[in-house]
Specification:
The chain has two domains: 9-191, no CATH class; 202-372, no CATH class. The protein is an alpha+beta fold. A hairpin with a 5-residue loop joins strand 6 (69-72) and strand 7. The chain has eight helices and 15 strands. 31% of the residues are buried.
Length: 373
C-alpha cells in the first residue's frame, strides 16, 4: 500500500466588525495563532494596530482631584455616578495601540500600549470565560497599576485592524499545520510592514550609511520606535522602556540634543537596561556618570532627573550654549567639561570613556536602531 501524506487542517473562524467605518477582527485564540506564526517568522507584529471595541473612560479613584460620586443602587450595589465627571483617561474607538507583551501558550495576558497626549497608557487583556475574546481588566498609568471595573456593561474587548480581501480570507480561514507555511507574504497585508512617517522622508537623510553623528540637533525617531528597539534587545524592560524613551525625547528636545544619539548611548552604557556590576538600576544613572569603580557612580532621585543629567552632559561636550532657562546642571561634572570640545560622537572617545572604540560602539548601536526602525 502506498504511504499517504497526512495534511492536518485547522479551521480558524474570524469575527469581523466595523468600527468607525474600518474593518477590525476580534482578537481571540484563533487570531493569536496567526500572530504567533508571524512572530515565529520574525515579522514585525509590533507594527500591527489594535483597537478597543468600545470607548473606555478611566476614572482614577484616590488620586488628586475629585473621585466619582458614590451611591447605592436598589439592589444593594455600589454605584459611581460619573455623569458629571471628566474621565482621567479616555480611549476612543479610533485610538490605536501596539502590542508589547505577547500572551503565553496557556492563555496569558496581552499588553497593549496606547499613547494618549504623548503619555503611555498600558492596558492588559485576558480571556473571557467563554474563551471567545480578550477583555481589558487593568491599566498602567504613570507606572501605577489600576484594576478596571464597570457596573454598567462589559469592559471593552480587543480588536485588531484588518484588511481582508478574497485571497487573504482564504488564507485566514484554512491554516495548514503541516508542510504549508502559514500566511505567506504575498497573500496577507498583515505581513506588510506598516510605513512609518519618518521612514519615507528621513531615511533618505541618513541613507542607512550616513547616520547622524552631530550630538546637537533633532532626532529622527519617535518614542515608540526607541522603546521597541530597547524591548527587542531586552524584553524584561517592560513598560519602563516606553517611559524612558519618552523622557529621552522630551529632555533632549529641551536642550537641542539629538535624542537618537543619546538613546543609543544609553543602550550601550546600560547594556539595554541590563546594567552590570558597577552601576545599579536603582541609581537612575543611564550613561555611566561617575562610574569609575564598583559601587561608585552618580545617583539620581528619579528616571527623569537621570535622563536630564545625561542630556545636559552631552550638551556640555557638544555645545558652548548655556542650559535652557539658565538652570543649574543636575550633575556637577557638567562644569568640569571642556565646553564644545566634542560636537560629534567621535569626540567622546577618550573623553566620555577611555575605550578607544567607544564612538564606534555608539555608532554601531545607532545603526542597529535605524535598521530596526
Amino acid at each position: 500500500m502506498r504511504n499517504a501524506a497526512v495534511l492536518v487542517i485547522t479551521l480558524i473562524c474570524l469575527t469581523v466588525v466595523n468600527v468607525s467605518g474600518q474593518e477590525h477582527i476580534v482578537v481571540d485564540p484563533g487570531v493569536l495563532q496567526m500572530l504567533q506564526s508571524l512572530k515565529d517568522s520574525e515579522k514585525p507584529i509590533n507594527n500591527l494596530k489594535f483597537y478597543l471595541s468600545n470607548p473606555l473612560g478611566i476614572f482614577i479613584i484616590n488620586e488628586k482631584g475629585e473621585a466619582p460620586e458614590p451611591d447605592i443602587s436598589s439592589d444593594g450595589a455600589l454605584v459611581l455616578n460619573t455623569e458629571n465627571q471628566t474621565p482621567s483617561i479616555t480611549i476612543s474607538g479610533e485610538d490605536h495601540g501596539t502590542m508589547i507583551t505577547f500572551p503565553s501558550a496557556d492563555g496569558g495576558v496581552i499588553e497593549i500600549i496606547f499613547w494618549m497626549n504623548g503619555k503611555p497608557v498600558v492596558l492588559k487583556f485576558q480571556r473571557n470565560t467563554q474563551n471567545s475574546r480578550y477583555i481589558v481588566f487593568s491599566a498602567t498609568i504613570n507606572t501605577k497599576d489600576y484594576r478596571l471595573s464597570s457596573s454598567r456593561r462589559e469592559l471593552p474587548h480587543l480588536l485588531i485592524k484588518s484588511n481582508i480581501n478574497d485571497t487573504a480570507a482564504e488564507i485566514f480561514a484554512i491554516h495548514a499545520s503541516l508542510g504549508v507555511p502559514p500566511l505567506p507574504d504575498r497573500s496577507s497585508s498583515l505581513n506588510q510592514r506598516q510605513p512609518q512617517q519618518f521612514n519615507s522622508q528621513r531615511q533618505q537623510q541618513y541613507n542607512r550609511d550616513r547616520l547622524p553623528v552631530d550630538i546637537m540637533g533633532n532626532g529622527n525617531l519617535d518614542a515608540r520606535r526607541l522603546a521597541g528597539f530597547l524591548l527587542r534587545n531586552n524584553p524584561q524592560a517592560g513598560t519602563f522602556a516606553y517611559e524612558l524613551a519618552s523622557l529621552y525625547v522630551e529632555e533632549a528636545l529641551n536642550e537641542g540634543v539629538n535624542h537618537d544619539i543619546a538613546f543609543a548611548q544609553m543602550c550601550l552604557e546600560t547594556g539595554f537596561l541590563k546594567f552590570g556590576r558597577i552601576v545599579q538600576r536603582s541609581w537612575n544613572n543611564f550613561c555611566g556618570l561617575g562610574a569609575i569603580g564598583e559601587g561608585q557612580g552618580s545617583i539620581f532621585p528619579s528616571a527623569r532627573i537621570g535622563v536630564r543629567a545625561h542630556i545636559q552632559h552631552l550638551k556640555a561636550y557638544a555645545s558652548t550654549e548655556p542650559l535652557n532657562g539658565g538652570v543649574r546642571a543636575e550633575d556637577d561634572r557638567f562644569y568640569y567639561v571642556a565646553r564644545g570640545s566634542s560636537p560629534t560622537i567621535y569626540g567622546l572617545t577618550g573623553r566620555w570613556a577611555e575605550d578607544t572604540q567607544y564612538a564606534d560602539k555608539i555608532y554601531s548601536v545607532l545603526r542597529r536602531l535605524y535598521e530596526f526602525s
